[in-house]
Amino acid sequence: MRSESLAAAVPPFPRCRELSRRRVGLQLLRMFALEGQRRVMRRELEAMQMAKISHQEVVEFRQARRMAEKRVDPATGEAVTLKELMAHYKGTYKKRELEDYWDGYCKAPKSKNSKAKKTKEQKPEPKAKAKAAAKATAKAKPAAKPATKPAVKPEESKGVSVGKDGGASALAKLRTFSKCVLGEYVWLDADGVTRSKTMTMTARPTKVADLKVWNYDGSSTGQADGSNSEVLLKPRAIFNDPFRGYPHVMVLADAWNAWDDQPAKNNSRVACAETMDMYRTLDPWFGIEQEYTLMKPGKVGMKSAVPLGFNADGSEPAAQGPYYTGAGFNVAIGRPVADEHYKMCLEAGVKISGINAEVMPGQWEFQVGPCRGIEMGDHLTMARYIMLRVTEKHDCVCSFDPKPKEGDWNGAGCHTNFSVSPMRAPGGYDCIIKVCEAFGKVAKQHILEYGEDNDKRLTGKHETCDINTFKYGVANRGASIRIPRDAEKEGRGYMEDRRPGANCDPYRVTSIIMKTTGECLSAETIEAGGKMHSAFVFIKPHAVYEKVKTLVKDKLVAEGMTIKSEGQIKADMIDKKKLIDTHYGAIAAKAVSMKPSQLTVQTKAQDEFEKMFGVAWSKVMEDGLVFNAMDGAKKLGVSPDELGKKYDALKKGVDIIKFGGGFYCGKVDDIYVINGFYMNMRSKFTAKGASIYYYEVEWPAEKMKWEDFRGKLLGPTDPATAPSGSLRNEIYNKWVELGLQAQPDTGDNGVHASASPFESLAERCNWIRASITKDAFGKALLASGIKMPKIKEWFNDPAVSFEGDKKSIFDLLEDKDAAECLKKCKAIAAENP
User: Fold this and answer.
1) One-character DSSP codes across 637-681
2) What are the residues facing 111 on neighbouring strands?
3) Rounded distance between C-alpha atoms, residue 548 and residue 541, angstroms
4) Is 691 in contact with 575 (CB distance < 8 Å)?
5) I need a surface site. Which of 364, 386, 444, 578 has the fewest CB within 10 A?
């Protein structure tokens, strides 16, 4: 309400005018105050002036209102007064910050009658009543204190932007940088030591893609020459900055050569990420116990030699014993450092799970994890960086040296706890033993990845196994691999590799652990995938009758097959989910969505086309005489179904030619149509009342070859020429007895079955939503090193290069047994990265 509106509402009589002004002014003041927003201050001032309310009255009114009013704290959803809010967060945030938080983020509690209350005029409370209400509220029992800090921190009310960093061009347009965000980029140098530098950003990032690729002088970190020194920093993970506080961040990055965009020296993260991606279906979990030693400062830039807690006169303290997990002065040396580091890691978002004092004075340990895959290296690297930052103000040095003090003192390790899903599953103990055996075969290769100077620590003493010896055991801290007692007892769990040194590169350690494990389990997975055949068989819509179902099922069982599942899929579902279009993949695409110009016709096929039709393929393409099925129907002025009938009348080798798997070209009237049969074929599956009836079957590969499954059990495409006793031939001969409306032909040949183990996986994923990661053949493909995106791409039956030719992937794998199919898939993948 504006001031002129207020003036118009006041009666003209002097006394009434004065009283009305005061009453209306107070009403406006209350209305604006309840909004709790700073922009109403100007309006409140107008109300004060017109109502002749003193400044002191306004101050008292505001104070009473603020102290009595309750608002919802976003952190907990609890309604609290400003006084209660300040009491709870006292010591954590300043008074002004909490007032900003109260005004900007704490909202009035919602009420069922809130809409009615907004429309109903409220009477102002007298000053005395307001004070009384405030006093009563203050004496009332305070609301339950929230267990956590505000979900929206008070600092966020300062107007910091979030999202993508605008970069230098955006900074140049700002009048002030006061609301900018600092990003501390952290990376590893040539020696595996963390380095960092700070960037001013226009916004707080919410995801890695919001961050800029930066650069630095690699000649000063041992990663480049001075004449070509630029190295790039590519962001990989975001953490909160616990040193500067919100909204500032720390950015974990890895280093790349600017001149060739290859990983810079000591960028082991790239190889680790590839390994983790290759074996991601095993869902690796890691937990690393990082031991470190706090040292007394030596000369600037020189390696420290004396651990914190060792006597000032150079003599050694009492022998090991009381320091491990100890407490008290002269026992737990350096606890303030360990505790502050713990707190800082939690604030940063590092997955730190615990700390404890270690065996030597000044020696501690923090645990990071469980972490999945590549994040183990990311979180441990950031935890190490935070530790180095913490020691800057505690007058000590953090050493990750595997043997920081010679003599009868424990070294410092980086024990790596590890498991994959088969280990955590019931019966996983056998998997743990199998992997331990595999580790023993490559023990020397692992040691090379486990840190420098590790031989000084792995002596066979001080809870270690000798560096040249490999052994594993339950609850044995003197073994290379310790298996927890609980894992043996429960028959599943994890294993602990005790060999990595404190200075190890976590990316190299986790990478080789995963590689050895993956290769060990993959060999078994691939072998299992090659021993069992799984196929998808369905009765086509024209033959879905009870007698046909009985015939097909009895035949499959008689041949020694196990029916894993069966069922009906109706036309409306087939149409709605485009199951038939996905099933026919490339066939459907060539008929409907792809234009002839997008198709590749091999030179040999073009020669055969010219021989058959007497005109060059390039000529008919140039003259615009080639169409897909959809466009061809429009060109001829017929429906897709009518085109399909015309197409069915064509004869192979006379007026229709096969260019490849699912790729046909036929001459219809005066034009050439690609896959003109498809639309008619599709309508058979999607017509009202139609359906298919499927069987998911499996059998040992040694009992029946895939070629025999299709050639003898199923029968060729033409049921009339199929072998006697095959499913297609029996349905062809007994069509009247079975209840079919017409005798089967090449198109309607009764039953379909997968052409290869790979095609079976594609069909089962499409029709019955099978899982690649749970299917034996699917797991074997992944274990062979073929990535998930590539498998899904192949489900569309693309043309791939192989042995100097380009063919349909389905054609290349047709009739191959599972083991052979897996080998060929791996070879094809190698030629088509």
Assistant:
1) T--HHHHHHHHHT--BTTTEEEEETTEEEEEETTEEEETTTHHHH
2) none
3) 11
4) no
5) 444
At 195 the three-state DSSP class reads strand
Taking residue 654's Cβ as centre, other Cβ atoms within 10 Å add up to 11
DSSP single-letter state for residue 157: G
**Number of C-alpha atoms within 13 angstroms, CB side, residue 754?**
28
| pLDDT surpassing 90 at residue 587 | no
- Other CB atoms within a 10 A radius of the CB of residue 50 amount to 17
What does DSSP assign to residue 413?
Answer: B
Class of residue 252 by CB neighbours under 10 A (exposed 0-12, middle 13-18, buried 19+): buried
Bridge partners of residue 496, in order along the sequence = 417, 482
List phi, psi (to 5°) of 238: -115, 135
Confidence of residue 14 (pLDDT cuts 50, 70, 90): very low
| pLDDT digits 0-9 by tens, 498-534 | 999 999 999 999 999 999 999 999 888 999 999 999 9
Q: pLDDT confidence of 549, banded at 50, 70, 90?
A: very high
Chain mean pLDDT for the chain = 87
Rounded CA gap, 523 and 528, in Å? 9
**Alpha-carbon distance 226 to 473, whole Å?**
51
Are 535 and 697 in contact by the 8 Å Cβ rule? The answer is: yes
pLDDT tens-digit series, residues 25-59: 555 545 554 454 445 555 656 665 665 566 666 66
Q: What is the reported pLDDT for 40?
A: 52
> Cβ distance 536 to 696 under 8 Å?
yes
- Give ∠ CA 199-205-207 in degrees, rounded to 5: 125
Q: Could you check whether the bond before residue 284 is cis, i.e. omega within 30 degrees of 0?
A: no
Residue 85 is predicted with a pLDDT of 81
Q: How confident is the model over 730-763, as pLDDT tens digits?
A: 999 999 999 999 999 988 999 999 999 999 999 9
Other CB atoms within 10 Å distance of the CB of residue 232: 18
The long-range contacts involving 225-234, CB below 8 angstroms and separated by at least 24 positions, are 228/259, 230/258, 230/259, 231/255, 231/256, 231/257, 231/258, 231/264, 232/256, 232/257, 232/258, 232/261, 232/264, 233/185, 233/187
Which of 832, 812, 693, 719 is closest to 759 using CA atoms?
812
Choose among 754, 752, 773: nearest CA to 699. Answer: 754
pLDDT value at residue 702 = 96
The secondary structure of residue 720, as a DSSP letter, is: G
Bridge partner residues of 570 (DSSP): 691
Q: Is the pLDDT of residue 603 over 70?
A: yes
Domains of the chain in sequence order: 3-139 (no CATH), 167-267 (3.10.20.70), 278-399 (3.30.590.10), 424-504 (no CATH), 579-683 (no CATH)
Q: State whether residue 245 is helix, strand or coil.
A: coil
**Statement: residue 776 has pLDDT above 70:** yes
Share in percent of the chain as helix, strand, coil (round to 5): 45, 20, 40
Question: Does the pTM of the predicted model rise above 0.85?
Answer: no
Distance (Å, whole) CA 171 – CA 180 = 9
Query: Sheet containing 663-668: which strands, arranged edge to edge?
Result: 626-628, 671-674, 663-668, 656-660
